[in-house]
Amino acid sequence: QVQLAESGGGLVQGGDSLRLTCAASGRTSGSYAVGWFRQAQGEERELVSGISGSGTRYYFADSVQGRFTIDRDYAKNTVYLQMNSLKPEDTAIYYCAAHFLRDPWEIPPDLGSYEYWGQGTQVTVSS
Asked: Tell me: the pLDDT tens digits for 74-117?
């Protein structure tokens, strides 16, 4: 089993930055992609960013492209989501998820491909 724990959420003003952290523990050996999803109230959960197991491929949704970056620290089993120029529409619960896979460059776009999920962290951006 793998446990994921998100942290770093909070209440900020528009234009501010936040850095979310996803820390993995347990049976983390092997290559795994990490996706950051978010779910706003009344909306479906969506993938906003992802990083491949190799750490060399990235995905960003159009809505966050140019504002969010993602990286990972293999020694700490941690993935970071740096969110800059935050907007009120970024308000949501943010979840990280892990997908263990053979292809180190894959970043699955669908929720169902991710085996492990964190509990989520709330991000609220005021206007």
From this structure: 999 999 999 999 999 999 999 999 999 888 899 999 999 999 99
- Strand order of the sheet with strand 68-73? 2-7, 18-26, 78-83, 68-73
Torsions phi, psi of 42, nearest 5? 80, 5
Mean pLDDT of 12-31: 94
Rounded distance between C-alpha atoms, residue 117 and residue 87, angstroms: 25
How many other C-beta atoms are found inside a 10 Å radius of the C-beta of residue 15?
A: 11
Q: Is the pLDDT of residue 28 over 90?
A: no
- Which run of H or E residues covers position 71? strand 68-73
Residue 76: DSSP 8-state: G
Are the CB atoms for 71 and 99 separated by under 8 Å?
no
Q: Residue 102 carries which side chain, given as an amino acid letter?
A: R
pLDDT at 35: 98
